[in-house]
Amino acid sequence: MKARIKGEIYEIPFNKLHIRYSDKYLTEFRQDTSARFDKRFKSELHSKFNQQLQQQRQNQPTQNLNAPNSELKNAPRMKNGPRMS
């Protein structure tokens, strides 16, 4: 970066450049923008999580064979079973 100080031009490398702002409005603006970006990032994460949940619900099988009551649901009904007389 080139800077003119008292009529002379100086070349200043960016890693040596330290700028301190005393402007309170600039620091407030920086804090507001960081909060806004954090909020946007959190809402993006929330929407991605909801999207994954919706996809899992759509792709889930109709019958859960690992459920403890699946044997009772899939067992033959008593009215269709053999008669005991």
Q: Could you explain how this protein is built, in words?
A:
By secondary structure, the protein is mainly alpha-helical. The chain has a domain at 1-35. Helices cover 48% and strands 9% of the residues. The chain has two helices and two strands. The protein has helices spanning 24-59, 70-74; strands at residues 2-5, 8-11. The chain has a two-stranded antiparallel sheet. A hairpin with a 2-residue loop joins strand 1 (2-5) and strand 2 (8-11). The radius of gyration is 34 Å and the shape is rod-shaped. It starts with a strand and ends in an 11-residue tail after the last helix. Residues 49-85 are annotated as: Disordered. Residues 50-66 have a biased composition (Low complexity). This is Putative MobA/MobL domain protein.
Percent of residues in beta strands: 5-15%
Distance from N terminus to C terminus (CA atoms, Å) equals 101 Å
How many alpha or pi helices? 2
Mean of all residue-level pLDDT scores: 78
What is Rg? 34 Å
Biased composition (Low complexity): 50-66
Protein name: Putative MobA/MobL domain protein
Region (Disordered): 49-85
Task: Give the helix/strand layout.
Blueprint: E1 2-5, E2 8-11, H1 24-59, H2 70-74
Antiparallel strand pairs: 1-2
Region (Disordered): 49-85
Biased composition (Low complexity): 50-66
Protein name: Putative MobA/MobL domain protein
Defining key terms:
85 residues, mainly alpha, two-stranded antiparallel ribbon, 2 strands, Putative MobA/MobL domain protein
Quick structural gist:
Residues 50-66 have a biased composition (Low complexity). The protein has 85 residues and is mostly helical.
